[in-house]
Amino acid sequence: MARMLRGAGSILLTLLLLVLLTFVVTRLLPADPVVAVVGETADPAVYARVRSELGLDRPLPIQIVRYLQGFASGTLGVSTLTGNPVEADLLAVFPATLELATVALLLSVAIGLPLGVVAAVRRGSWIDRAVRLGGLIGFSTPIFWVGLMGISLLYGRLGLLPGPGRVDPAMIAQVPERTGFAALDGLIAGDPAFALSALSHLVMPALTLTLLGAAFISRMTRTFLLDQLGQEYVLTAQAKGIEGWRLVLRHPFRNILVQLATVIALGYAGLLEGSVLVEVVFAWPGLGLYLANAVLSGDVNAVVGGVLLIGLVFILLNQAADRIGERLDPRLRTR
User: Fold this and answer.
1) Does the pLDDT of residue 80 top 60, yes or no?
2) Which of 23, 53, 176, 322 makes the best surface tag, with the fewest CB within 10 Å?
3) Which residues have C-beta within 8 Å of that of residue 36, sequence separation ≥ 6?
4) What is the end-to-end Cα distance of the chain in Å, rounded?
5) For residue 45, what are the CA distances in angstroms to 30, 232, 316?
6) Domains of the chain
7) Residue 335 has pLDDT above 60, yes or no
């Protein structure tokens, strides 16, 4: 019980710090949320009235206190950009981001994990050098540039994949949203054309995020496994006649599963965060695009709500990684 209370207190403190920091940062932005509502040519009296209604005429500490009061009562305020409650907007846009990041994570694990293992086992070989070079490229190449090049080549020149968006424009709202995953919703609704359109639109943004995720996972897997391969117990196992992939998978790889669980969880959170730029490039109607538009319009409530959601996801994924680690290694369990 005490552990649960400490965990809940830590989560609340983290979210509180996120609110304070985000409020201060958004106030430094040049965008004026009142102008986003009334327009640049609005009468000064109208501007002053709307500013007062939004509570922007009050000191920053009072605005923060009022926001926290609403947060305690279960509301994140109203978005000046959409006119909807922020929590309703987040529920509407987050499934698209979750779909994109989940597919990218699965691809990242499927590609990065085997490459990291092979690179560690074949240390110094051309495979190892190629994996390290690929990881370096994945880390150092701006993700938005990769997306733009993908659109220019695969859509603009070759026409192999569709352009930006989640589905073809003519198919928007063609099927009801049930799971939040567009392709799956299309299959449930018995509309294979919609499902195929959703899958084809998912390819480029998912692969763009995968470049970042696979680079991270392969690099960390290689590092963890190399550390284990240098341990004395590996030499002992070899002396007993255990060699090759049987040795790697039976001992060193099993010993890095706890670390890999943490890496994958953090990688998932990083993909959710990195989707902001990808969604802007591909006009993907998710949390990233919503946050980008909110920042540009000075929509404080939407920005704070989005940041809180991302922060909460980070915290929950860390907690999940800890629980998985405890199951994989009982020594990590605390009383």
Assistant:
1) yes
2) 176
3) 80, 81, 297, 298, 299
4) 10
5) 21, 78, 46
6) 14-72 (no CATH), 86-144+205-332 (1.10.3720.10)
7) no
